Amino acid sequence: MRRILAASAVLIAVSAVLDAGVPQKKPLPFCADGPGVKVPAQLLPVDEASRRPDFFTYRARLQVAVADSDLDVLVAAADPNIRLGFGGEAGRDELRKAMSGADGPGVWKELARILALGGAFRHASSFEAPYVFSQWPDRADAFECAAILGSNVSVRSAASTDAPVVARVSYAIIRAPGEVRPVEGWSLVQLANGQQGFVKNEYLGSPNGLRAIFTLTNGQWRMTALVAGD
User: Fold this and answer.
1) Does 108 map to a domain?
2) Is residue 123 a part of any domain in this protein?
3) Which domain holds residue 84?
4) What is the pLDDT of residues 151-170, one digit of tens each?
5) HSE-up of 80 (CA within 13 Å, CB side)?
6) Whether the model pTM is above 0.70
7) Percent of the chain clearing pLDDT 70 (strictly above)
8) For FRET with 124, which of 14, 28, 89, 219 sits at 20 to 30 Å CA-CA?
């Protein structure tokens, strides 16, 4: 027994020495995808659509069509080869199927939301929406982090509007490791100071959520991509 105890003591001592010699991995900065990256505290809204009156008019008409769930106008506003996913899904017929299928109502609602959230020109003939996608900071973690969409948004102690408010944040970049469902529900989030709470998903925007890309082709604006994920 004494030999066993002595051997155990030696193993523990050796293990401690080995552990002491192994450099400890430093945690990454908040919402950064690598060491030495400083992520901005906020992602302020941007909408550059008015820089091009032709695009501004095109988008306004598209917003009316989306509000009315006018499938024919939406399809006409799309490029014939519109990209709808990362597995080869493309084309106006696929768009029509997607918008009229079982998931259609949610997609219409989310499309209206991203159009209202503005965006930015990648270059003179390409516009990306929403701004959470087009303006997402370089080297910020796009998978576990998201942006607060609004000013003085309540962070609550539980997923209920009756729960106490633990913080109020404005356009903050926050950690939201769970799946963000924009149309309904709540998400558990973590603020930069480590505080946790729940935010209604309508006030959260993910750079990997639904986004639209518009391209000027032969003098006409067309929606060339409507995708989500990465």
Assistant:
1) yes
2) yes
3) 49-137+207-227
4) 999 999 999 999 999 999 99
5) 1
6) yes
7) 86
8) 89
